[in-house]
Design brief:
Blueprint (H helix, E strand, L loop, with lengths): L1 H15 L5 E5 L4 H13 L5 E4 L8 H6 L4 H5 L2 E3 L2 H4 L5 E5 L10 E2 L1 H13 L4 E5 L8 H5 L3 E3 L12 H21 L13 H17 L9 H14 L4 H20 L4
Parallel strand pairs: 1-2, 1-6, 2-3, 4-6, 4-7, 5-7
Helix pairs in contact: 2-8, 6-8, 9-11
Length: 264
């Protein structure tokens, strides 16, 4: 009970601090790596750590030992079963990857990514960074959930980064973007914030169900690729909450008409 109360206090304390991006680790393997990520975050003032299905369970004593003073980040970390759950409350998500992707999503370097995060969060939006597994990073479906991609200017002959190194680089760029912000605005934030990921994922699921009813995904063996392409296109649009509600209303109307059959 005491441990639970301490964790709640840590989370509440984090919510009172200046807003910063969430760091989302997908299926991290070693507790030591999580601890080093927490240390990197604390170095640059980040505190919102989210873990998706950590391999060795949670809490993890090795994570606390490797945090080297950043135990407060480890103890306030939240665990989720899926990426969708971990990013549901965010309105802007960046996926980190070192590999070219078959995607039409915008690609940024760390510096402009940090500045974009700063602009979004300064405008009152909730943003985050998605980091993949130690061995093979993020899969295409997970990258597809993000609005944009961040890649690092590393040597192509050895492009692999330790997860803590990747988090350290982006945490540094987040801190550095604050210095640029003090000198004057570099980006204009959107006037209407985009919808939360939870609402967007619900709309995409609704759309896919409607398309299934209309036999859009044909032939069946290509359904996965076609579905991913639809999701990529619509994620790029950065729909607002009102726009998502309007689109779902349109889908419901189409479904009612499909159920009644053609007029006349």
């Amino acid at each position: 009970m005491a441990g639970t109360n301490r964790r709640e206090r840590l989370i509440a304390d984090g919510l009172t601090k200046p807003a910063s991006p969430a760091i989302v680790l997908v299926e991290p393997q070693l507790g030591e790596n999580i601890g080093m990520v927490a240390r990197a975050m604390a170095n640059f003032g980040l505190g919102d750590l989210r873990l998706v299905a950590p391999r060795d369970g949670w809490p993890n004593e090795r994570a606390s030992a490797a945090a080297s003073g950043a135990v407060h980040v480890v103890e306030a970390a939240r665990v989720f079963g899926t990426v969708e759950e971990a990013v549901a409350d965010l309105t802007f998500l960046l996926a980190t990857t070192a590999r070219p992707r078959d995607s039409l999503k915008p690609v940024r370097g760390p510096d402009t990514a940090g500045a974009e995060l700063r602009a979004r969060i300064s405008a009152g939006q909730r943003a985050g960074l998605l980091f993949g597994r130690e061995r093979f990073g993020l899969n295409n479906e997970e990258v597809g959930m993000a609005d944009e991609i961040v890649t690092f200017p590393v040597d192509p002959a050895f492009a692999s980064l330790n997860i803590a190194q990747a988090v350290l680089l982006m945490s540094y760029e987040w801190m550095r973007s604050g210095q640029a912000e003090a000198e004057g605005p570099r980006f204009v934030a959107p006037e209407v914030p985009p919808a939360e990921k939870e609402d967007l994922f619900r709309f995409l699921g609704h759309l896919e169900a409607t398309l299934d009813k209309a036999d859009y995904f044909h032939p069946p063996e290509k359904r996965g690729a076609m579905s991913q392409k639809v999701r990529t296109i619509l994620t790029r649009a950065a729909f607002s909450e009102q726009e998502v509600r309007t689109l779902r209303g349109m889908l419901r109307h189409i479904e009612r008409r499909m159920g009644r059959g053609p007029r006349g």
